[in-house]
Amino acid sequence: MSRIGQTFAALKAQNKKALIPFITAGDPGRGMTVPLMHALVEAGADIIELGVPFSDPMADGPVIQRASERALANKIGLKDVLAMTAEFRKINTTTPVVLMGYANPVERMGYAVFAEAAKAAGVDGVLTVDIPPEESVGVADVFKAAGLDPIFLLSPTTPESRVELVAAAAGGFIYYVSLKGVTGSANLDMDEVAQKIATIRRHCTLPVGVGFGIRDAATAEAVARIADAVVVGSRIVNEIETSPESEVVSRVKTLVQDLRRGVDAASK
Amino acid sequence: MKLTDFPDSHGHFGPYGGVFVAETLMAALDELRVEYEKARNDPAFIAEFEYELKHYVGRPSPVYHAKRLSEQYGGAQIYLKREDLNHTGAHKINNTIGQALLARRMGKKRVIAETGAGQHGVASATVAARYGMECVVYMGAEDVARQSPNVYRMKLLGATVVPVSSGSKTLKDALNEAMRDWVTNVESTFYILGTAAGPHPYPMLVRDFQCVIGREAIVQMQEQANRQPDCVVACVGGGSNAIGIFYPYLAHPGVKLIGVEAGGSGIASGKHAAPLSAGSPGILHGFRSYLMQDENGQIIETHSVSAGLDYPGVGPEHSWLKDEHKAEYVAINDDEAMAAFHDLCKYEGIIPALESSHAVAQAKKLAPTMKKDQIILVNLSGRGDKDINTVAKLSGITL
Fold first, then answer.
1. Residues B36, A64: Cα–Cα separation, whole Å
2. Where are the domains of chain A?
3. Is the pLDDT of residue A236 over 70?
4. What pLDDT was estimated at residue B102?
5. B22 close to A (CB below 8 A)
6. Where are the alpha helices (H) located in A14-96, listed in sequence order?
7. DSSP H helical segments within B193-233, as ranges?
């Protein structure tokens, strides 16, 4: 079983839900990422989603776009992200790391070369936002063969007929994008999300994580009641953006601890 | 599979094209694919499209024998396909009419578009006014500043122009932002994509709507010259005017097809917008094609005097035609394009778009190497009124 699978199994045994915070690698500085990753774990993260910066993040809202621009200004590329993961693994060998990004940096490195390097660095899952299952022939299989879980998205616009197709290609967990829109959008309709998750579970045995629109302990709790994992991105990246550099780690930690309390409140 | 049968059912032109988008858009693209498939086989849809092209756009656009320019260049005879004479001044309107009719057929009341120089934005605002739709145009903040007359044109036509301040603040960022709008408003909104690029089915449907250029030219060349040209030359940014004239000519293997990219300050300078000439394959904006990218797969900034060619990617079918050696792609730099711009003004009384001037400049290079009874057909994709400020500035003149 993969590290992601083990994590979900262990949480399930304790009747707990997973908290998956997102940060962009290299934001706000090259040296900040690994300390931030450790801080996320200390604050209660079960899985870390690490954003790979890209020049044209089409699915992201302004907050994560700016994080990507800051990271690129720091000259962070895919190789640096792998090096950061390897650095993190020197201390932490249990918390799964999922890379989230866009196709082209991986395409440029080569899927097989990337898969091998990512596995060696200690990466557990890969989510390439703009590679849907239809285009993942020769990609998802390569990832799976290297021992990486290919994570795929489902969205409010996904017809039920497609859920099975996506589930068949996916590994680790399913990432349900709770809103039509880009990252950082507001206003979650919990009933709608709950309905959709029920549909997904009819076709898929993988754990279901929900992201987009989760910004505080209360929304984290509400989502944790219906999903297996709560993914929080823009809210954390916003905290990084608005904190003085000396306070980034402590303020992110406080925020994630609060989100953790929200997630755990759902299991009580 | 014949070359003209591409793309395959998944939108692939060999290794290029495809549907590289986030999940939220998959259903919308599938809906568009299905609806377009029905429309292209519906005689009523085709008839309305053709009626609009004739009575609203003013088609067919003439093919014109540029005799004085041919004499000046001293070799092959140069013919111009006059897309500059279309309503709104460029080939872009062929595509926006087709897509607006599709939008109406699909019951979408709101259309969005991206634009660089503003030509596609104007063509989109025009059809939105024509069919009574709400229109939002995304335009890089840099381009909004450079192309203020076109911004005002769009506003006159009732469109909302949204300046995009992310990334390099140009066309590629406008496209990113249009995609973000579409993801957010996917159920109510039709995205009128401006070139033969983007995720499937866009490269195919834009090509199909633009093919009227090549189909007309084949008939017109036969009428005027009693033969087809030896070569067809067109500028390539995203590549919609080029694929529109090339595609029908793929059935005429004796006709050489030459796409002209923006060489900017020269390929060697690195400051250009010529992915086919000096880029490598990658994935951007929903499709795989040749791209301008660095060793980390980040998209790099492009440079061209012509805003309409200032794009780091190129339509996937051009990448395929290049690899299959069915078309040849070259680069013309800013200075060469400017010289050709002035030639056409001076010898023919035609002010060409700076984009189209790149194709004229390639004809200038080719003509002297060919015999006087040979023919070059240049797709004059747009008129240059929009560019007079740029040209004046480069000539050190304040208007």
1. 34
2. 3-265
3. yes
4. 98
5. yes
6. 33-42, 62-73, 78-89
7. 202-210, 212-225
Return d(Cα A72, Cα A79) in angstroms, integer: 13
pLDDT in tens, B19-51: 999 999 999 999 999 999 999 999 999 999 999
Could you tell me if A96 and A123 are in contact, meaning their C-beta atoms sit under 8 angstroms apart?
no
Structure-block tokens of residue A53: 């910066």
Catalytic residues of A: 49, 60
B23 inside 8 A of chain A by CB: yes
**Interface membership of B205 toward A (CB under 8 Å):** no
Residues of chain B with pLDDT > 90, as a percent, come to: 89
Query: Helix, strand, or coil here: B307?
Result: helix
Rg for chain A (alpha carbons), in Å? 17
d(CA B88, CA B85): 8
**Superfamily (CATH) of domain A3-265:** Aldolase class I (3.20.20.70)
Mean pLDDT check: name the lowest of A226-235, B26-35, B142-151, B277-286: B142-151
Over the stretch B237-247, which tens digit does the pLDDT of each residue have?
Answer: 999 999 999 99
Nearest to A130 among B20, B293, B297 (CB): B20
- How distant is the Cα of A26 from the closest Cα of chain B, in angstroms? 15
Summarised one tens digit per residue, pLDDT across range B269-315 is: 999 999 999 999 999 999 999 999 999 999 999 999 998 898 999 99
B173 CB within 8 Å of a chain A CB: yes
Return the active site residues of B.
92, 114, 381
- Measured between CA atoms, how close is B173 to chain A, in angstroms? 7
- Cβ contact, residue pair A58, B285, below 8 Å: yes
The whole-number pLDDT of residue A189 equals 83
Angle at A258 between CA A254 and CA A262, to 5 degrees: 165
* Separation of CA A156 from chain center: 18
- For the entire predicted model, the pTM comes to 0.96
- Specify the pLDDT at position A87: 98
Chain A neighbors of B176, CB-CB under 8 A: 56-58
Looking at the DSSP assignment, which residues form a beta bridge with residue B376?
B78, B231
Contacts of B300 in chain A (CB under 8 A): 55
With CA atoms as reference, the chain A residue closest to B28 would be A157
Contact between B24 and A159 using a beta-carbon 8 Å cutoff: no
- Contact call for residues B354 and B384 (beta carbons, < 8 A): yes
CA-based torsion, A130, B135, B110, B239: positive or negative? negative
- Rounded to whole angstroms, the Cα distance separating B217 from A154 reads 46
